[in-house]
Amino acid sequence: MIFDAGTLPVPGRMRADLCVIGSGPGGATAAAIAAEAGLKVVVLEAGALVTPAMMSQREEDMLPRLLWHAGARTTRDRAVRIVQGHGVGGSSLHNINLCKRTPAILRRGWAKRQPLERLDDATWDALYAEVEALIAVSPVAPERWNRHNRLLQAGCEALGWRGGGLSHNRTGCLGSGFCEVGCAYDAKNNALKVFVPRIIAAGGQVLANCQAVRVLHVSGRVRGVDAVALDPVTRQPRGTVHVEASRICVAASATGTPALLMRSRVPDPSGTVGRGLRCHPAVLVAGDFGEPVRAWEGIPQTYECTEWLDFEGEGGRTWIVPAFGHPVTVASMLPGDGAEHRRWMTRFAHLGALTAMLHDHTAGTVEPKGDLDVAIDYWPDAADRAELMRGLSRCAKLLFAAGAERVLVPGAPARVLGRGDDVEALAGLPLDKGALDLSAVHPMGTVAMSDDPRRGAVGSDGKHHHVEGLWVADGSLLPGSIGVPPQVTIYALGLHVGRAIAG
User: Fold this and answer.
1) What is the pLDDT of residues 370-411, one digit of tens each?
2) pLDDT tens across 419-432, in order?
3) Predicted local confidence at residue 246, as pLDDT
4) With DSSP H G I counted as helix, E B as strand and the rest as coil, what are the percentages for the chain, rounded to 5?
5) How far is CA 187 from the centre of its chain?
6) Which fold has domain 2-70+84-137+183-276+444-502?
7) Which of 78, 153, 240, 342 has its CA 20 to 30 A from that of 260?
8) How far apart are CA 111 and CA 394, in angstroms?
9) Is domain 139-179+278-440 given the CATH code 3.30.410 in the classification?
10) Which of 280, 442, 464, 496 is catalytic?
């Protein structure tokens, strides 16, 4: 059953064999595997149960329902926006369904730097194949690429740059274009649709609006979880919930998981918990086209430019895909006030946008902020800033090559370039805090796995080295940036860790 802790009597107490904290791709998958192995499973989810029937396709409704801080979570200095989801199903509710495996060369590099004996190439490949079958990953047919994506394709072809179609996990998609505010048509093969029903069918329970505060442990063994029930409207604590469990799996995201472990004073002799944050920071460039683009219609991201994403050499570390927002989001990024801003908004149907997402080397930090929030510190180092600015220039070049009449770089100040202006000069501009809108949607790496307890708090099976009965199953485990969307990798880790728990 799925219960709303925000409406249940408090204080509450429960008992389980396994308590899973977080119901996104990692947590829901691990919980399903454990429940089907016969364990009594309780899943705690800080967000609400938001079904497709409840998804109104309106930003003012859905952003607060689906995103931490209604999409306004930032680093401590507000320099980078960190977009993360909550709800039964986690970030898989609002993501755009992009599915890519972590490149094998990166996985092999991790294995060389530190032992990961339970995740060799063969194991990774088998996990990926299984996940891709479970969530029905397939290439998006070219005839379904909208004009927005075809403009990126045209730009790549005009410049002779490498690009190609993307694979998604969607079935029965109508091409409504509202993926980022949840799919009202239930076409996403996400954690809520694929794995939560398996948890319930196997006798597991899910508590929505229930946020874990501390993992309880005594003498090197877990004892349970202290949580709070959140009011479904105000999201303020209304009472306590205690779950007694001999096994706990933390899958609260690469920000929530380290903060919870640190708040709980879980031993970490390696000193790695909360360190090593990578997040694929990205810059955005918009193009104004003569003919309407209507970028909000159809499947949002079906084509990619990989010309400047080189995992083996020095060819670049930026991945370029289309990016577009709904009216309020776009309005917040357009320049000017009054009449000037209105003139830009009248071009809404003619705007297309590209984002350059960085395969980052910078390592940020996460720590707890009170009982229910996190504090994130992250600013790209000099090499990463330079690569981001090169990515900015490349996006502008692609937009002009695709036929844009002018290009807008949002920021303070905003920059507008016309055809014939020096696009290359963008690459040489300094990237100062507040000068550009930097956002990140893929936090990872803050509880990096290693079979050597001196180099990581958890092993390559997700099991904690120092507290018996404690596991981690989310993007925290990744030992570095993966340079591609992480959802398939996190599902794979959920399968892997779930089996370790059940075993």
Assistant:
1) 999 999 999 999 999 999 999 999 999 999 999 999 999 999
2) 999 999 999 999 99
3) 98
4) 30, 25, 45
5) 19
6) FAD/NAD(P)-binding domain (3.50.50)
7) 78
8) 33
9) yes
10) 442
